[in-house]
Amino acid sequence: MNTIRWLLALPFLVLAVAARAAPFEARVVDGAGAGLADAVLWLTPSAARPAAAAASASMDQRGLQFVPHVLVVQRSTTVSFPNSDQVRHHVYSFSPAKKFELRLYKSIPAEPVVFDKAGIATLGCNIHDWMLGYVVVVDTPYFAKTDDSGRLKIDEVPAGEYRLDLWHPRDLDAGTDRSEVIRIDAATPARVFTIRTRPPPPVTPPTELEQKFRAYRKAPPGDA
Length: 224
Known about the structure:
Blueprint lengths: L1 H18 L2 E8 L10 E6 L10 E3 L1 E3 L2 E3 L2 E5 L2 E4 L8 E7 L2 E8 L7 E3 L3 E7 L6 E7 L3 E4 L5 E7 L2 E8 L12 E5 L6 E4 L13 H11 L6
Parallel strand pairs: 1-17, 3-7, 6-12
Antiparallel strand pairs: 1-14, 2-13, 2-15, 4-5, 7-10, 8-9, 8-11, 11-12, 15-16
């Protein structure tokens, strides 16, 4: 009798397991098969999207670089841009996802920036031309960025249908639509994605004399 009851209950147990939240794991590699850091993957539910909770994040400026180089946030997140360097920075973005400008400053600017539109915001510094950073704004709480080995993990993804999107700042085929519709449940296997990439831009800053000349040329009167 117990065996019969167990067999009758088995389909319901299977459904319950499938409906549970499960992690989604992936690895992103370049054309040579090496792990690719700073790739961003996000899963947008086909059903109603969860409301974005108020959140905050930070992108620092250290060693004349944006840190992290790529920041991923959910839409409506407030991002601060502290300056840990001993020189002034002038942070800006002309991207459709977010246009803003933080004029020459040290330490912490007066106002953080609210990223209220999904998309990719490319950041630069008007004084230090080689500085480049990205804020990836997504309209879902299910997102992750790859580590140095190219691996990522999104915890507790509810079972269901999602649109998967993948992005990398040096994608050689940036115009290619990488989105796909996938079904996620407890049995979803780890995925491997390949992105052909451009060589990374040089990160060596100009000499101290060149930096001073650029700052003098660009700074408003009284700020040089």
